[in-house]
């Protein structure tokens, strides 16, 4: 009898274990680390679409910063996907923390392959693919440009149709502003607009591309060079220094952040500001100032009447699978499902007739307030794998939340004329060269110091430093890459 | 008692200094408070100083509706109440033992505490430790590491030591155990020191964000301090702030509202604690 009972008990136990294991096999939950958001994920429309369409239940967790990411990786926590900024992608690559996913994409990712057309070189190292490249949300737009209080310019004869197109006219404009509004800063500038010390509108006249998001690398006669080697750098610097000496620029340039420069402009302490189309409260200015109007200054023409600028482009973020993932294949399948045309639209834009509709020209138009209320953070769920072919179009609908911001964005884009170029390193792998950012910073600091009253010797010193400490390796890295991938 | 002329000047100077220091602490907070309740227009034109101009509550509404404020507030309350109560219990027991010379190895224990005040492990070793206890993404990772503060233990120990021996001896002679002496004699006369520690500990639990920044990836566990950090940080990041624009509100007002809405709840405990500071520590305990 005892034996029988023991046998039965053992059988029950074995069955129980077997069942438990079978259950574990069935239920796969994916763990995705995505960019942090101040709103609750579950309240957003995008979240429910993802849960319904991904094919697997996904637990979204937030990543707060680089320290946390590195701690997570070094303690081998089993996440199946991680959203990465350029810097974090570089860090993950240096630590061999990303899985090679080329084969998985071949097998499970037809939508991924179809949706991303040009960006693969950015994630390909030694022939292997290490992440999904997510397009910059506003490709081929201008990031930074001079925005002016047109109402004030009108009063001194610089009407919107007569805005400066050449260096001389620009200098004259600044002088006129200084004379007419002696208490105001003619042009508010910040030390954190990239590329540092290069003002896109002015750099254009010297044939230097600026105003994008990719640093100061330039393509000269088919060769990539850093700004420090640009033949027109010194003339540009000297021109800017001339403006500084005349008191036509912002004396706080070297010390102030963009938010402060904008506040100067919004608060009526500056006539113009160098900044992006994004984030500033122009609508408040319309309440503040009678006759308020703004305009985006043209890019200044070089001696041949041509304008130059670097467009905002390339990869905005990366979607990687950490080497500790327990379900890499399922993660790729889920991403593939979320990049499917209709699903991607459902997440990025929402439901037709509820969140958006077509306007008379057949373009997407947001339906408010549903779009702002229910789709406000939808982009975070797909931020590491935007469809390159269509997401930027969806993104433009977000501009409709603010009519002035929208106008500013399109005016900046229009000012590119035919002179906007992608940075030559826009889709180069951001793994780069070891001390690259330190080298770039050294040069940037020297340039910023000079246009703010420093000495030219510092620029020469930075030139020497760049060439002696690995700058040539950086240039060689990019040129080799360029020759292999872009020609 | 009459004050001499010199003493009067001295007292006046003290008053001026105390008021000036108070204002230095108060004015920035008042300024943020005023900004959080003013119109974007008034803030942009630098007209807001210490009182709201063109009163409106858009900033507060934004934080209330568009962020996970309520959930984070709940988390912060739980962490703070749990952390402070447990921490207080442990600190009182430890300080009481350390305040008694008859404790064997007392010096050794005190040195242990001092050692931990001077030497701390770095971020990563602590992270590994927390991870090895499976506390990542658990409320306890925000509570446990800060339960014992050597500094507050010493503060309380000094408080206990300042209670006259005769009080405790009297209780012991009447047959009270150590526990009874602690609860019936020592604690009632140490209310002021305990109230101080409660406030310090509670405020520290409330404000601490770095632990959450490291140990929490699960959004529903986020404390208020981390939300504040994110609101301010996201406003500075050009690339990712898709989610914050277009609400017809200036960033300054959002930031200010978030700061004020974070500190208000913890500020509310001060009035309750205030009376313990005002009362004298030893009033009427030893006579004759």
Report on this structure:
The complex is a heterodimer of chains A (487) and B (288). With 487 residues, chain A is α/β, with parallel strands linked by helices. Chain A has two domains: 29-137 and 315-390, D-Maltodextrin-Binding Protein, domain 2, CATH 3.40.190; 145-311 and 417-485, Periplasmic binding protein-like II (D-Maltodextrin-Binding Protein, domain 2), CATH 3.40.190.10. Chain A contains 20 helices and 17 strands. Chain A has helices at residues 2-26, 45-53, 66-74, 86-94, 102-108, 110-115, 150-155, 167-180, 200-205, 233-245, 258-266, 282-288, 328-338, 341-348, 370-374, 391-398, 403-414, 436-451, 456-468, 471-485; strands at 30-35, 58-63, 81-84, 124-125, 128-129, 132-135, 145-149, 185-188, 217-220, 223-226, 270-275, 294-296, 309-311, 315-320, 356-358, 364-366, 420-422. In chain A, helix 18 (436-451) runs antiparallel to helix 19 (456-468). Chain A is globular, with a radius of gyration of 26 Å. Chain B has 288 residues and is mainly alpha-helical. Chain B folds into two domains: 1-56, no CATH class; 57-278, MetI-like fold, CATH 1.10.3720.10. The interface between A and B is large, with 52 and 46 residues.
Topology of this protein?
The complex is a heterodimer of chains A (487) and B (288).
Chain A: H1 2-26, E1 30-35, H2 45-53, E2 58-63, H3 66-74, E3 81-84, H4 86-94, H5 102-108, H6 110-115, E4 124-125, E5 128-129, E6 132-135, E7 145-149, H7 150-155, H8 167-180, E8 185-188, H9 200-205, E9 217-220, E10 223-226, H10 233-245, H11 258-266, E11 270-275, H12 282-288, E12 294-296, E13 309-311, E14 315-320, H13 328-338, H14 341-348, E15 356-358, E16 364-366, H15 370-374, H16 391-398, H17 403-414, E17 420-422, H18 436-451, H19 456-468, H20 471-485
Parallel strand pairs in A: 1-2, 1-3, 8-11, 13-17
Antiparallel strand pairs in A: 3-14, 4-5, 6-14, 7-11, 7-12, 9-10, 15-16
Helix pairs in contact in A: 2-14, 18-19
Chain B: H1 5-36, H2 40-44, H3 58-66, H4 69-98, H5 106-118, H6 123-132, H7 140-143, H8 150-161, H9 165-173, H10 178-189, H11 191-207, H12 210-215, H13 224-236, H14 251-267, H15 269-278
Helix pairs in contact in B: 1-14, 3-14, 4-8, 4-11, 4-13, 9-10, 11-15, 13-14
């Amino acid at each position: 009898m005892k034996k029988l009972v023991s046998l039965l008990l053992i059988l029950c136990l074995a069955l129980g274990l077997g069942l438990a294991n079978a259950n574990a096999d069935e239920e796969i939950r994916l763990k995705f680390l995505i960019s942090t958001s101040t709103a609750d994920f579950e309240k957003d429309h995008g979240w429910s679409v993802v849960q319904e369409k991904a094919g697997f239940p996904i637990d979204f967790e937030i990543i707060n910063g680089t320290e946390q990411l590195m701690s997570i990786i070094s303690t081998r926590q089993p996440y199946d996907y991680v959203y990465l900024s350029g810097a974090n992608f570089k860090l993950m690559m240096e630590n061999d923390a990303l899985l090679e996913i080329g084969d998985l994409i071949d097998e499970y990712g037809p939508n991924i392959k179809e949706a991303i057309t040009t960006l693969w070189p950015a994630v390909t190292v030694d022939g292997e693919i290490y992440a999904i490249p997510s397009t910059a949300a506003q490709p081929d737009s201008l990031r930074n440009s001079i925005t002016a209080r047109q109402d004030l310019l009108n009063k001194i004869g610089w009407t919107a149709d007569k805005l400066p197109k050449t260096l001389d006219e620009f200098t004259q404009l600044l002088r006129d502003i200084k004379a007419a509004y002696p208490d105001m800063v003619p042009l508010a500038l910040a030390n954190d607009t990239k590329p540092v010390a290069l003002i896109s509108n002015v750099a254009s006249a010297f044939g230097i591309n600026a105003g994008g998001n990719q640093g100061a690398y330039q393509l000269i006669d088919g060769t990539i060079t850093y700004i420090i080697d640009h033949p027109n750098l010194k003339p540009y610097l000297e021109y800017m220094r001339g403006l500084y000496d005349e008191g036509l620029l912002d004396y706080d340039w070297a010390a102030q952040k963009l938010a402060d420069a904008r506040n100067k402009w919004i608060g009526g302490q500056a006539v113009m500001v160098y900044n992006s189309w994004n984030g500033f409260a122009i609508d408040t200015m319309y309440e503040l100032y009678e006759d308020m109007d703004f305009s985006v200054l043209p890019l200044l023409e070089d001696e041949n009447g041509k304008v130059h600028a670097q467009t905002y482009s390339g990869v905005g973020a990366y979607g990687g699978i950490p080497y500790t993932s327990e379900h890499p294949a399922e993660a790729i399948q889920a991403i593939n499902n979320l990049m499917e045309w209709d699903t991607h639209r459902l997440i990025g834009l929402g439901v037709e007739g509820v969140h958006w509709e077509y306007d008379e020209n057949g373009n997407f138009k947001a339906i408010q307030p549903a779009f702002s209320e229910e789709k406000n953070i939808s982009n975070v769920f797909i931020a590491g794998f935007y469809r390159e072919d269509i997401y930027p179009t969806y993104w433009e609908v977000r501009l409709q939340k603010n009519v002035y911001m929208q106008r500013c964005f399109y005016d900046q884009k229009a000012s590119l004329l035919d002179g906007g170029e992608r940075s030559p390193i826009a889709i180069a792998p951001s793994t780069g060269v070891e001390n690259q950012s330190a080298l770039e910073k050294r040069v940037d600091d020297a340039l910023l110091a000079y246009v703010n009253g420093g000495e030219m010797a510092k620029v020469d010193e930075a030139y020497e430093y760049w060439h002696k400490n690995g700058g040539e390796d950086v240039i060689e890295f990019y040129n080799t890459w360029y020759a292999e991938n872009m020609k | 008692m009459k004050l001499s002329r010199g003493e009067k000047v001295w007292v006046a100077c003290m008053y001026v200094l105390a008021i000036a220091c108070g204002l230095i602490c108060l004015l920035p907070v008042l300024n943020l408070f005023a900004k959080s309740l003013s119109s974007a227009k008034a803030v942009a034109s630098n007209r807001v100083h210490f009182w709201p101009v063109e009163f409106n509550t858009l900033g507060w509404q934004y934080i209330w509706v568009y962020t996970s404020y309520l959930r984070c507030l709940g988390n912060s309350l739980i962490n703070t109440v749990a952390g402070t109560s447990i921490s207080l219990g442990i600190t009182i027991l430890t300080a009481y033992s350390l305040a008694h010379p008859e404790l064997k190895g007392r010096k050794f224990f005190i040195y242990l505490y001092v050692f931990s005040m001077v030497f701390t492990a770095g971020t990563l070793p602590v992270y590994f430790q927390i991870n090895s206890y499976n506390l990542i993404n658990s409320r306890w990772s925000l509570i446990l590491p800060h339960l014992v503060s050597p500094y507050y233990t010493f503060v309380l120990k000094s408080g206990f030591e300042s209670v006259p021996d005769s009080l405790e001896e009297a209780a012991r002679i009447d047959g009270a155990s150590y526990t009874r002496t602690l609860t019936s004699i020592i604690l009632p006369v140490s209310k002021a020191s305990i109230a101080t520690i409660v406030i310090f500990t509670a405020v520290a639990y409330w404000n601490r964000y770095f632990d959450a920044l490291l140990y929490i990836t699960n959004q529903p566990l986020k404390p208020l301090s981390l939300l504040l950090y994110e609101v301010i940080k996201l406003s500075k990041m050009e690339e990712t702030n898709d989610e914050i624009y277009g609400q017809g509100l200036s960033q300054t007002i959002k930031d200010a509202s978030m700061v004020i809405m974070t500190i208000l709840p913890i500020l509310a405990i001060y009035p309750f604690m205030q009376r313990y500071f005002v009362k004298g520590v030893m009033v009427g305990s030893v006579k004759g």
